[in-house]
Design brief:
single chain; about 100 residues; alpha+beta; 4-stranded antiparallel beta sheet; 2 helices; 6 strands; about 30% strand
C-alpha cells in the first residue's frame, strides 16, 4: 500500500522518515511511504477512521467514565473524539519518555 496525497510535512528521526500527507479529504501521519499510522477526516475530525481506534473506544458504549487518560505517541484519533464528545469526561494525554530524556517535560 502506498499512501497518496500531497506531502505537507517531512522530517526524520533515528528510525527514518515521518510524513504528513493530505489527499484533500483526509490527513495522514505515516512512518515511511507504505504505512498509515493515523488518519482523520478533515470535515469530521471526531469520526474515528482507524479500526483499532473504533475498537478501543467500543468500551464507551458500556461505561461512562469521569476521567480518561491516553498514553502513547499516536496521531490523536481517540483524543479528537473524546474532546468533541458529549461524554463530559475530563480527558488528559501523557507521553512516556525514556530515562534521562528531558525533552518531553
Amino acid at each position: 500500500m502506498s499512501l497518496q496525497g500531497t506531502e505537507i510535512h517531512r522530517c526524520y528521526d533515528e528510525y527514518g522518515v515521518i510524513l504528513v500527507l493530505d489527499d484533500g479529504n483526509k490527513r495522514y501521519l505515516s512512518f515511511g511511504t507504505d504505512d498509515e499510522q493515523s488518519c482523520y477526516l478533515k470535515s469530521q475530525p471526531a469520526q474515528p477512521q482507524a479500526d483499532y481506534i473504533r475498537a478501543m473506544l467500543l468500551v464507551l458504549l458500556f461505561v461512562t467514565p469521569s476521567r480518561i487518560i491516553s498514553m502513547g505517541l499516536g496521531g490523536g484519533g481517540a483524543e479528537h473524539l473524546l474532546a468533541s464528545s458529549v461524554f463530559g469526561a475530563e480527558a488528559g494525554r501523557g507521553r512516556a519518555t525514556p530515562p534521562g530524556d528531558t525533552n518531553g517535560l
